[in-house]
Design brief:
The complex is a heterodimer. Chain A starts with a helix and ends in a 6-residue tail after the last helix. Chain A has 13 helices and no strands. Helix content of chain A is about 70%, strand content about 0%. By secondary structure, chain B is mostly helical. Helix content of chain B is about 70%, strand content about 0%. Chain B has helices at about 5-15, 20-45, 55-70, 75-85, 90-95, 100-130, 135-160, 170-185, 195-205, 210-220, 225-255. In chain B, helix 2 (about 20-45) packs antiparallel against helix 3, helix 7 (about 135-160) runs antiparallel to helix 10 (about 210-220) and helix 10 (about 210-220) runs antiparallel to helix 11 (about 225-255). Chain B starts with a helix and ends in a 7-residue tail after the last helix. Classes of the chains: A mainly alpha, B mainly alpha.
Chain lengths: ~260, ~260
């Protein structure tokens, strides 16, 4: 059901071929510019607080992948505010399918696909250049961390967009603002002052999307965090689910 | 009243009506500033790298922030959505020049952008300590360069908006524009740090005038004649792009179709 809805949106997207290619080119271009920036920066300094070129590339890659999955599979969340504002959520309520999945599958961001692909290439390139003592156990942890990172990013998107149930604004300003904070998490957490460390580590745990997973894999932070990252992921998912449910219970429809 | 003046005044008043979108547009530039400040503070804590030390980099990043905010707060979306929605048909029948009218609107909205730049600049300077101003003549040249930044940024934004005559959505074009401008203007990293071939290409491109030229003059890295040459290049691109934008507009008019009635 979910896949069928996404398929429909994908096909309607391909109708405007020029737009499709501009989106793909634009996202790839953004990643290339990021890489040129990092390359130029690390040509002058060997490391930032002990973080070299490739670990930071890996962090940029993880953010790109997590955002990519969010755009490709759950783009519809960003339209929730508009649905509530115009009272169109009613149609979804009467259908026998989880509301949050219906909302999520209400659109496809093709930029997600190119972000996932470029992000994966960057991640693989980075991991092969970093000296890591791979073992089956560590590989398993790596996969678990990757999944956790994606869950955290998507959960934050869902929870912040669910705030629209209370704000009644037609654009999800709060969610967009929090989304922008996520860009800070592409750099090692240690460069930031304490207030920002707390914000990214606890208030909106973007540090668990990029910094801690890469830190665990490269052995820069305590391996204990490999347990904490999935725990944070579960926590974020539960909070997102609860926020969405409470919002839905509060929903009273709009208009006539 | 002069119609362009009227448009500028109307826009100057309406910016406050879209405070939410304004704050949101600001967020992107603000977080880039915070991230880059944090990274360079650590990197430059052991002394200068290349030609920049920490106080110079601070000033330079503030110029980069200003160049992002000026004509960057929704002005581009307003122009693009007029074209995508077809409202442009109404603009064409009005007895004003389209390009000059949009320029007047951008000018009307610039006061709040300048206010935000001054505020953020002031807070940054208080947090990290003051900045070293260059001599009198260089300060004047810096101000000239900042004045030229406004029409230059307008033209880059305006021309990318015109691309909507050929596409249905603006987002992709905007992302591509931001990526190119970030790199070639030196807003992400000073051009001196780039590979020499890329730095040379960027230096003479129209984008250099968007951060690199005023930034280098402010931190005293374009002394004497060099600064004048850079500002002259900036002026050259403003004139050239103004004419090129006219050409692009004429081309777009030739293929315009507006649906509905």
């Amino acid at each position: 059901m979910y896949l069928r809805m996404q398929g429909i949106h994908l096909r309607s997207l391909l109708e405007y071929e020029a737009d499709f290619w501009i989106m793909v080119i634009a996202t790839v271009l953004m990643q290339i510019v990021n890489l040129i920036f990092l390359q130029a920066l690390f040509a002058k300094v060997p490391s930032i607080n002990g973080w070299g070129f490739w670990p930071v590339v890996a962090m940029f890659a993880l953010v790109a992948i997590a955002e990519g999955v969010g755009s490709l599979m759950f783009e519809g969340m960003w339209k929730l505010a508009d649905l509530i504002n115009r009272g169109e959520l009613d149609y979804l309520l009467v259908r026998p399918f989880p509301v949050w999945l219906q909302v999520s599958s209400n659109g496809v961001g093709i930029n997600g696909a190119s972000n996932i692909i470029t992000g994966t290439i960057m991640l693989i390139a980075a991991l092969t250049h970093i000296d890591i003592a791979w073992s089956p156990g560590l590989a398993l942890v790596g996969v678990l961390l990757l999944i956790s990172a994606i869950v955290i990013k998507v959960s934050i998107n869902l929870a912040t967009n669910a705030v629209s149930f209370w704000s009644a604004s037609p654009t999800p300003l709060f969610a967009m603002a929090v989304h922008q904070v996520g860009d800070l998490a592409r750099f090692p957490l240690s460069v930031y002052p304490l207030a920002l460390k707390l914000a990214l580590g606890i208030v909106v745990p973007f540090a668990f999307v990029s910094f801690f997973p890469i830190g665990v894999i490269t052995g820069k932070v305590s391996p204990l965090l490999s347990i904490l990252v999935p725990v944070v992921a579960v926590y974020c998912a539960v909070v997102a689910r609860q926020t969405f449910r409470r919002g839905l219970r509060r929903y009273e429809s709009a208009g006539n | 009243m002069n119609p362009y003046l009227a448009l500028a005044r109307a826009q100057a008043r309406s910016v406050l009506a879209y405070r939410g979108n304004f704050a949101l547009g600001l967020g992107g530039f603000l977080f880039q500033l915070v991230a880059l400040l944090a990274v360079w503070r650590v990197v430059l804590s052991n002394g200068p790298i290349g030609s920049f030390d920490w106080p110079q980099m601070r000033s330079y990043l503030l110029v980069a922030f200003a160049s992002g905010v000026i004509v960057g707060m929704g002005a581009d979306y307003r122009m693009a959505s007029r074209i995508v929605q077809g409202d442009v048909a109404l603009d064409i029948v009005k007895p004003v020049d389209y390009q000059r009218a949009r320029f007047a609107e951008a000018f009307g909205g610039v006061w709040i952008e300048v206010a935000v730049v001054l505020l953020v600049g002031g807070v940054t300077l208080v947090l990290f300590g003051g900045m070293a101003w260059p001599g009198w003549s260089e300060t004047m040249l810096f101000l000239c360069s900042m004045l030229l930044l406004f029409p230059l940024k307008f033209l880059v934004v305006y021309m990318s908006g015109l691309a909507c005559f050929w596409t249905q959505h603006y987002v992709g074009i905007q992302w591509a524009r931001v990526a190119v401008v970030n790199l070639f203007s030196g807003a992400l990293i000073p051009l001196a740090y780039l590979p020499s071939w890329l730095a040379a290409a960027a230096k003479w491109s129209p984008f250099a005038g968007l951060t690199s030229t005023p930034g280098l003059i402010l931190v005293g890295q374009a002394p004497g004649r060099e600064g004048f040459v850079l500002v002259a290049v900036q002026l050259f691109w403003v004139v050239t792009m103004w004419l090129a934008a006219r050409g692009l507009w004429n081309k777009a008019m030739a293929r315009l179709t507006v649906n509905g009635g």
